[in-house]
Write a structure and sequence with these properties.
Blueprint lengths: L1 H23 L13 E7 L7 E6 L1 E2 L7 H17 L7 E4 L15 H5 L3 H11 L1 H9 L8 H29 L2 E3 L3 E9 L2 E13 L1 E2 L10 E2 L21 E4 L2 E5 L8 H10 L3 E6 L33 H8 L1 H4 L7 E6 L1 E2 L11 E3 L4 E3 L6 E7 L2
């Protein structure tokens, strides 16, 4: 028996040595190649000295998430462009889109991940090269996590993702002396403590942090309240009544993450917050999806004020204008709003959408583009 145990131990040691050698190889970051792909720039209103909102619809690719340096260089390329346009002042708020930080899950991974043809292939390689961390989070997954695979992928990288997300946005806010709404990121049970995002064991949330011009953070995180069908199996929602209001240079502001902008309850909460501005970081999956017939609500029941005859009849783009920020902002009492969306070639996920900006007397939408875009909205 002892001889058999020794042989088994030797074989196990060899297998583990081979595995760890494989898991650590091929993790050299790709060369830094910043391509902002800015197809359009917009300026809305004249500068009245009351501050402005700069919306960024960035064009992201997997290589932009290879490291903190790659991520920072790509995001900074848009801030540099805004600075050249003269858009950045101490009263500027910069808005990035939903999921801008989520793909930091790929940071520090094998270079083959950034070349993968599909997100499924990329995640399979990631799980394989981080199998012990993945399995630990699998067995520790909370009851809310029906999809333990996706939960465990993000939970196993949550601390590193949070660190890069906060460090990069904090540095950029401090360098350019602006306020930054950091789009959103999927993190495991995050809280802000002592000016840091702390990760605790628990479910995954879709959250947004706000960074001050000195690089510090606002003490609360905005969290998604209405996850869509694809998100619900591994993501937990925050009660819509808990939407925070941030005192920013342009006025009291609420941050509403993507699908939350479709629901009347969101605007009732904002009315109670007495916010003057609503900022919506969003992401629309699949190329050219905005021109397709609108499929209706996802993840939650259709609100009673929505015309069921619009479903399958109007385009998704038309539905965004009718049933999100432009169509609902008046019920909140807010005066200004902006929606930006994530663009790019992130494996096989696709993307679509343009900015939407709302003022007391107008609604603006960007022209369809294949790349990224930027918009400057001055508060009057």
């Amino acid at each position: 028996m002892q001889r058999g145990f020794r042989i088994f131990s030797i074989i196990l040691a060899i297998v583990l040595a081979i595995y760890f050698s494989w898991s650590k190889t091929g993790r050299k970051s790709p060369s830094l190649d910043v391509q902002p792909h800015i197809d359009s720039l917009y300026v809305l209103n004249a500068d009245a000295g009351k501050g402005n909102i700069v919306g960024i619809n960035p064009f992201m690719v997997p290589q932009d998430y290879a490291s903190a340096g790659h991520f920072q260089a790509k995001l900074e390329s848009y801030l540099q462009a805004a600075q050249l346009e003269g858009w950045l002042t101490p009263r500027t708020v910069v808005l990035f889109p939903e999921y801008i930080g989520t793909w930091l899950v790929a940071a520090g991974e094998k270079s083959s991940i950034y070349q993968a043809n599909s997100v499924s292939a990329a995640m399979t390689t990631m799980v394989g090269s981080n199998i012990f961390s993945f399995l630990r989070n699998w067995f520790m997954a909370p009851d809310e996590a029906e999809d333990k695979v996706r939960h465990s992928v993000f939970a196993s990288k949550a601390e590193n993702m949070a660190r890069i997300y906060q460090d990069v946005f904090g540095k950029l806010a401090s360098k350019y002396k602006v306020t930054i709404v950091g789009g959103s990121i999927l993190l495991q049970n995050p809280v802000v403590s002592r000016n840091r995002i702390r990760i605790k064991n628990g479910p995954i949330y879709n959250v947004s942090a706000v960074f001050n011009p000195d690089g510090s953070m606002q003490p609360e995180l905005a969290m998604k309240s209405f996850p869509i069908d694809d998100e619900k199996p591994f993501m937990v929602s925050k009660p819509v009544e808990a939407i925070p209001a941030f005192n920013l240079p342009v006025g009291k502001t609420s941050v509403v993450i993507c699908a939350d902008a479709w629901y009347p309850e969101t605007y009732k909460a904002i009315q109670r917050n007495q916010s003057a501005i609503i900022l919506v970081p969003s992401y629309t999956l699949s190329d050219k999806s905005m021109d397709k017939p609108w499929g209706g609500y996802s993840g939650h029941a259709r609100p009673p004020d929505v015309d069921s005859l619009d479903i399958g009849k109007i385009s998704l783009r038309e539905a965004w204008v009718k049933y999100t920020l432009p169509g609902r902002i008046k019920s909140s009492g807010a005066q200004y709003g902006m929606n930006v969306t994530l663009r790019g070639k992130l494996w096989d996920l696709g993307s679509d959408g343009e900015f939407i900006a709302v003022t007391p007397d107008s609604v603006y939408t960007g022209q369809k583009v294949e790349g990224g875009s930027m918009v400057c909205l001055y508060i009057r």
